[in-house]
Amino acid sequence: MIESSIRDQAYQIFQEEALELLQLIEEGLIKLQEEYETPHIHQLMRAAHSIKGGAASVGLQGIQKIAHRLEDIFRALYQRQDPVDDDTEEALLQAYDCLKDPLQTQIETGSFDEEAAWEKAEPIFAVLETVLQHELESSEYQLPSAAELGIDLVSEIFNGNVQEELTRLTHILEASDESNLAEEVKGVANVLEELGNLLGLDGFTAIAQSTVQALTQAP
Question: Which CATH number fits domain 2-217: 3.40.50.2000, 1.20.120.160, 1.10.340.30, 2.40.50.140?
Answer without folding.
Answer: 1.20.120.160
